Amino acid sequence: MNGRLIIRTIYCNFTRKTPINHDVFSYKPAFFGVFANKLSTKTETKFVEKKHCNVGTIGHVDHGKTTLTAAITKVLANDGLAQFTSYDEIDKAPEEKARGITINAAHVGYNTKLRHYAHTDCPGHADYVRNMISGASQMDAAILVVAANDGPMPQTREHLLLAKQVGIQYILVYVNKADLVDDELLELVEIEMRELLSDFGYDGSSVPMVYGSALKALNGDESELGVPSIRKLLDTMDKYIPPIVRDLQSPFLMPIDNAFTVPGRGTVVVGTIKRGIMKKNDESDLMGFGYNIKTTLSDIQIFKKSVPEAVAGDNVGVLLRGMKIKAVETGMLLCAAKSFTLSNHYKANIYFLTRNEGGRKKPVFSKYSQQMFSGTWNIACRIDLDPSMHMMMPGDHGEVYLTLLEGMVMTQGQPFTIRENNVTVATGIITETLESIDVPKGKLGKVIMRYN
Ligand SMILES: Nc1nc2c(ncn2[C@@H]2O[C@H](COP(=O)(O)OP(=O)(O)OP(=O)(O)O)[C@@H](O)[C@H]2O)c(=O)[nH]1
Ligand SMILES: [Mg+2]
After folding, report:
1. Which SUPFAM superfamilies match (predicted)?
2. Catalytic residue among 52, 65, 159, 164
3. Residue 444 contacts residue 420 (beta carbons within 8 Å)
4. Which residue among 107, 125, 232, 367 is the active-site one?
5. 382 phi and psi angles, rounded to 5 deg
6. Ligand 1 mutation target, pool 58, 60, 62, 149, most atoms within 8 A of CB
7. What ranges in 60-207 are assigned the alpha helix state H?
8. Does 84 have pLDDT greater than 90?
C-alpha cells in the first residue's frame, strides 16, 4: 500500500507539469446539451442530440473488464434489453482463450430504458495498448474497472492518461472483486482512485464509484455485490453521462478502424464518425501514411443496413468507389474532400514522464526516434529538441520538432503519446503544422533539420 501512496504523490507532481490536452476530436462540453437549441440560433452552429452513447471498459489486466461486460449483457438480457454475450464470446480468439486475457477490443450492444449503448471491451495487458487506444477512441464515456484487491496498477494509470488523450470526457469507476476484500480496503481504494482521477484531469471528487463483483453478477448472484451492482452501474451511466452532443456542422471526419473487401462490390472501411454528416455519393479524401486518395462514398451502412446519410457518433461501414484494400490502413482518416492537408512535420509541446511515472531513466537528445501514437494510428517519429536546448530530462517539458516517417493529418491541440519498448514515455500536444520535410530513403536518422 505504501508504494501505491508514494506513486500517487509523484503523479500529483506530474499533472502540474503536463501540458493541457485540447483534443481536436473531443466532443463539445456537456452543457451544450442543455442549451443546444438556444446556442444554435445565436452561433449558427447546429448540434443534434441522439440517445445513443459509446462506452467501454478500460483498466489493468485481469481486473475484470470482460467479466463485467458479459455480466452487463446478462443482467439486461434478463430484462429483454440485450442479447447475452458470454465471456467466451467476447474473448473468442484462440490466443485469448489460451492465455486468459483480452487481446482484441470487442464490441457489444445493449439498451437501458433510456439509451442504446455500444460498448467496447478493451484489453488491459501492456502489450496491447494500441488495441486499447483504438477501442477507447470510439468512446464517449469509459467504465474504468479496478480490482479492489489490487487497487490502481500501472495500466489503470496508463489507461487514464490515454483516455484523456483520446478525448474521453466522462469516466465511471467500477470497483470490482469487492467480494475479496473488507470495507476498510474498499475505502482506501476509493481514496486512491479519486486522487488518481484528479491527477489526470478528471473531477475525482464527483466521478461515480460503484462497488461490486462482476463474477458474482455473471453467476446470477442476487446479493448486493452481484446483480444489483450491475443495475446500479447502468443506472449511474444513464444519469451521469449527459446526452452526447455532436458537432454536425463541420466537414465530416472518420478515423478508420478496419477495412475489408466485399466480393463484387469493393472496399469497405469501418469506423465511428467523429464529426459532421456524411452522405451517400459525397466526394471525400482518404488520408494518412503519406497518401491522399480521392474517392466517393458509394454506400453507407449502419448495423448492416444502407442509409442515405450518417452523423457524428454513428459506427458505419462505408463502401469507397475505386478503392483498393491494399491502399487502406487503420488510422487513416476519411474526410470531406479538401478539408485537411497532410504533413510529416510539426511543432509540439511535450512532457517526458519520470521514471516513477513509468517513463525513461535517461535524458533525451535531438534525433530521438520512437513510435508515436495519436487517435487510432501510430507511426515512427523523430523528435528534435529546440536548438536552444542540449537535452531534456525525464520530468521536463518544452517545445520540440516532430518529423514523422510519412505525412499524417494532425491539427493544433491534437494530443499524442510517445512509446518506447511498449511503455508510454512522453505525452504532448501539437502546437503548429510545419511544411513537410524530406525523409531520405525513409530513414528518420538522415533527416536534415532546418533549425540547427
Ligand atoms: N473473485 C472475483 N474474481 C473475478 C471477479 N471478476 C472477474 N474475476 C476473475 O478475474 C479474472 C480476470 O477477469 P477478466 O474479466 O478476464 O479480466 P480483464 O480485465 O478482462 O482482463 P484483460 O482483458 O486480459 O485485461 C478471471 O479469472 C475472472 O473470473 C470478481 O468480481 N471477483
Ligand atoms: Mg478482458
Report:
1. EF-Tu/eEF-1alpha/eIF2-gamma C-terminal domain, P-loop containing nucleoside triphosphate hydrolases, Translation proteins
2. 65
3. no
4. 125
5. -110, 135
6. 62
7. 65-78, 87-90, 94-99, 129-136, 154-165, 183-199
8. yes
Q: Pinpoint the alpha helices (H) of 222-274.
A: 227-240
pTM for the predicted model, two decimal places: 0.73
Catalytic (active site) residue 66: yes
Closest of 259, 251, 342 to residue 293, by C-alpha: 342
Residue nearest ligand 1's atom 23 by CA: 102
Cell, residue 386: 529546440
Is residue 397 part of the annotated active site? The answer reads no
The C-alpha cell of 431 is what?
502546437
Grid cell digits, residue 285: 479524401
274 is catalytic: no
pLDDT digits (tens, 9 = 90+) for 110-138: 999 889 999 999 999 988 887 888 788 78
Map grid coordinates 521536463 to a residue.
396
Domains and CATH numbers, the chain: 51-240 (3.40.50.300), 253-336 (2.40.30.10), 343-446 (2.40.30.10)
Instruction: Write phi, then psi, for 426 (nearest 5 degrees).
Output: -150, 155
Q: Give 402's strand partners.
A: 346, 383
